[in-house]
């Protein structure tokens, strides 16, 4: 494994962690401030909302990362066609 690939994987892990924690912490803060200001008990609801939005954000992040890697692995179709055409012309 190249060093560049290792750093890409570490970056992805860091990005997943930050993507998951940010909505949870923001929703916790919002729930806490609303509870303190209005005297309600909505903190649990906001924490659950934060967890669900964090999971969705991680899902979208990983899905786009996987699709991006699939496009990198695909050879350029135009280039492949030109290569085969040149190879066929050389054989004639």
Which helices and strands, and how do they pair?
Blueprint: H1 3-38, H2 43-73, H3 77-91
Helix pairs in contact: 1-2
Describe the fold and architecture.
The longest helix has 36 residues. The chain is built from three helices and no strands. It has 92 residues and is mainly α. The radius of gyration is 24 Å and the shape is elongated. The model has no long low-confidence stretch (mean pLDDT 86). It has one domain.
Tell me the total number of β-strands: 0
Oligomer: single chain
Global outline? elongated
- Going by helix content, strand content and strand pairing, the class is mainly alpha
Order of helices and strands: HHH
Give the C-alpha Rg: 24 Å
Count of the domains: 1
Distance between the termini: 42 Å
| Helical segment count | 3
Which regions contain 5 or more consecutive residues with pLDDT less than 50?
none
Give the biggest beta sheet.
none
Strand content: under 5%
Mean pLDDT: 86
| Helical percentage | over 70%
Looking at this protein, list some descriptive labels.
92 residues; mainly alpha
Describe, in short, the structure shown:
By secondary structure, the protein is mostly helical.
